[in-house]
Amino acid sequence: MKKSSPEEMITVEIDGAARGNPGPAAYGVVFRRQDGTVIEPLARAIGEATNNVAEYRGLLAALEFAAKKKFCSLRVHSDSELMVRQIQGSYKVRSAALKPYHERAKALIQKLERFEIRHVPRERNREADRLANRALDGSPRQKGG
């Protein structure tokens, strides 16, 4: 795999899914280069969790993978308005269950040279959603942290 240059902005699409809330949960993550080519898809079932926990677990998997691959600049797209606004600082993290995930994410974000997170409509996040649901369905093609 070709290394990312420091100035290259990698786009990461993330999604979390829970069947029931809480219920069986998973996340899906897709890393893309600026030209749209997929670098790496990640998906993992995470056991019983809420949808919001699954969204944060997807973000953490993306940030940990980016750190491992030494990506410097990330643009994250998520259809979770709650998580996006919490990471941006416009919403407070009131849930005690989400606070540790939020704190870990913020610590990992601090290590990046550039970071953006954007709320996108669900239809613009289909690939990550498909991966999360495939992980929930028990597909053998699962990777991720």
Mean pLDDT over the full residue set: 92
Number of domains: 1
Strand/helix succession: EEEHEHHEH
Structural class: alpha/beta
If classified by CATH, what would the architecture be? 2-Layer Sandwich
Helix content: 25-40%
> What is the CATH class designation?
Alpha Beta
Q: Return Rg in Å.
A: 14 Å
CATH superfamily: Ribonuclease H-like superfamily/Ribonuclease H
Distance between the termini: 19 Å
Q: How can the largest sheet be summarized? A: 5 strands, mixed
Treating each run of at least 4 consecutive H or I residues as one helix, how many helices?
Answer: 4
Can you give a write-up of this model?
The protein is an alpha/beta fold and 145 residues long. Helix content is 34%, strand content 30%. A five-stranded mixed beta sheet has the order 3-2-1-4-5.
